[in-house]
Amino acid sequence: MKYWLGLLRVSGVGCRTFLKILDHCSPEAVFSESTAALVAMGLKNKSIKAIKNPDWATVDNDLMWLSLENNHLITLDNPFYPQQLKQISDPPPLLFLRGQKQLLSSPQIAIVGSRNPSTEGKQIAFDFAHSLANQGFTISSGLALGIDGCSHYGALKATGNTIAVAGTGLDRVYPASHKQLATEIVTHGAMISEFPPGTNAIAGNFPRRNRIISGLCLGLLVVEAAKKSGSLISARLALEQNRDVFAIPGSIYNPLARGCNGLIREGAKLVETTDDILQELNQYNQQHNISISKNNQSELDLAQQNLLNLVMFSPTSVDILVEESGYSAEIISSMLLILELQGYISAAPGGGYLRTK
Prior knowledge:
two-stranded antiparallel ribbon, 12% strand, alpha/beta, 9-stranded mixed beta sheet, 18 helices
């Protein structure tokens, strides 16, 4: 973990350079590579000097933040790193996370839109998030004012799951008015960021954040967006990442509808109800049975329900379940058998288990 953080803190090493280094060696090994080897990797003099003189004091501060309860670092080789995000062209090598790390691999719908939406737009975002969360989807967004915040609140109101992707370090909240919302998200969902603690809100960080929002999701819904807006950046990133893009249509006289109407002209799916989204994702829905009502788990005892919540819709190893639950391997095996017999999970090829409903 120390060396991953050390490499992240090297000046001039961004996401793509970090990934290029990983193709050659581990983060630990890079700090003992010769100057010639570092040059061969394409590193510039400034970065090479920084690698030869690492800022371990700052890394120690990062490690101190990670030692706090509920704070995690998910590296690209970590079993909790979401496969969905790995598929994009430039996945972040590290994810800082506060909250429930198992949610990263849950089926997600992203909802984005204007920071200054209409009253109707706010209600639409809230209602769609509430309904989709009730269907079993995790709602992901960017914690921004307007549509983002309404989407997070809608999922929380449904006692569903939500993930906020931040454009700052997770030791701060932007905008500051969303501090209480961020606290609720950490308690009932997760906040994630590729930026280390101490990173302030910088304009250039938010388009980078958007590729994570779109990269995590199965589909992205745009509720209201002006003709030139960050939400359209997210939508175009989603299309590049081969995700479904949905848009709420609006009046030709409403400037906040022009972005959505433009997306529909370009091939985004016109959406009027959550059923429109569910039908589009029907193949995935049928495969994973994620639209099952929460009440159908009532025959499970509390321990079994808690264990089921740790089993992801991608292969989850028994080792992870033991680590996350605190139960012994014997108890885990017994409960897994019950969950499998009742159809909640199935054995995954190569070991581990998949959640099926």
